[in-house]
Specification:
Blueprint lengths: L13 H8 L2 H4 L4 H17 L5 H19 L12 H13 L12 H36 L5 E6 L2 E7 H26 L1 E2 L15 H7 L4 E2 L3 H6 L3 H27 L7 E2 L18 H24 L14 H24 L1 E2 L1 H7 L6 H10 L4 H10 L9 H6 L12 H30 L7
Parallel strand pairs: 3-4
Antiparallel strand pairs: 1-2, 5-6
Helix pairs in contact: 3-4, 3-6, 3-8, 4-5, 6-7, 6-10, 6-12, 6-17, 7-10, 7-17, 10-11, 10-12, 11-12, 14-15
Bound molecules: arginine.
Amino acid sequence: MARKLWQKNYSIDSALESFTVSNDYILDQSLVLSDAFASLSQAMMLNKIGILSDDELKDIQKGLKEIRDLKLEGKFEIKREDEDVHTAIEGYLTEHYGECGKKIHTGRSRNDQVQTALRIYMREALLKTIDQILDASSSLITLAKNNVLTPMPGRTHMQIAMPSSVALWALSFAEEMLDTAKMASSFFEIIDQSPLGSAASYGVSLPLDREYTACLMGFSKVQNNVLYANNSRGRFEAMLLDILGYEALTISKLAQDLMIFTLPELGYFSLPKELTTGSSIMPQKKNPDGLELARSRTALILSLSERVKSIIKCLPSGYNRDFQDTKEPLIEGYNASRELIMITSHMIDGLIVNKENLLKGCTPELYATDNVMDKVLSGGNFRDSYLEVGLNLDKVNKTDPEKALLKRTSIGTSGNLNIEYAVDLENMLRCQNDLRMDKIRESYQALLALDELIV
Ligand code: ARG
């Protein structure tokens, strides 16, 4: 039986062990590199304050780089008896490098250790999500640019409403996603603080240099209050899942629209056959399973945030083991979101626009309100003009669809889409995001000699 970090003179009941560890040791495979990276910063700090000698630091650095290589080869093992990645890493260092392995945990607790590993995981997950959202917006902007004057019936209550365009429709989603990216980007400022050194929840009586470890790990600051550092577990996970949830909600609406607009009866758009699935009995079927599952994955992501909030809502201050169960929804939610946004961009890129069907959909009733506005422009009052058109709907003049689009000149409408707004926002957010990713990459490179991001 492996020694626990909390081992004394008895062994844990095996049923309780398997209940408490559950699948945490498997999930922790996602945190091996983050924990090795954080442990490197801890070791350098312990050396700086005189607790680790230069030779001991060198051994630990060597050992942690071996762990990095093992992980990259898929060979770093965490056993159920280890409980978690933290024990497995300390165990490796002690087994291979002796005494210094027993010093790495000086001044830290698994509570701030797991918080730090998760923070490293989450900040990267957030930046990668922003990147993906920007890619999806960019696909939508391209669709818009290619269809500035492609008419499309605008709908309210799902009924034919007013002239619109494919570009207006696509940009509505692009702008929504860009606002989500903006929200995600401001959340980065909250995620970007280091909990390391908060220990079990109350700090320790050693002169730990928290600013130094924060800086080594590429965080902009320390998370000041040590109790808050521990209490924020689950909160930040839920906030991240909420952001993923908002993006998923946009995607779900987009998917729903596309399911309607690709109906054979409407055929405004179609998906290339490679992006549809078939039926085992009906040979003609081309089903939009990707869109349908986008809807249900949205439900999954929303529920995972709820799960985390339910776990933390009644927890008293300080670490409680309940926190462990917030790890799975975080990782599951991020993985689901990553796939979801990726497949969405893929489907937008592949979307086929059927201009003829869109034109066919622009039936005379679509122009009823424009007829009212024409009368207003020739001096009529709105209410009487409305009544007149409403009582003579069979006589509504069908306007040229393109002209109807161009007649809308106020900002954000089909004749004045202001695409540059979305393009500029996307560029600004991308620039900021790239700089943040570079800073993280540099810290991985400096400490762990890693060129790639790790999540
Ligand atoms: N696997 C644990 C978690 O995720 C690590 C921290 C354990 N801390 C403790 N005091 N038992 O929360």
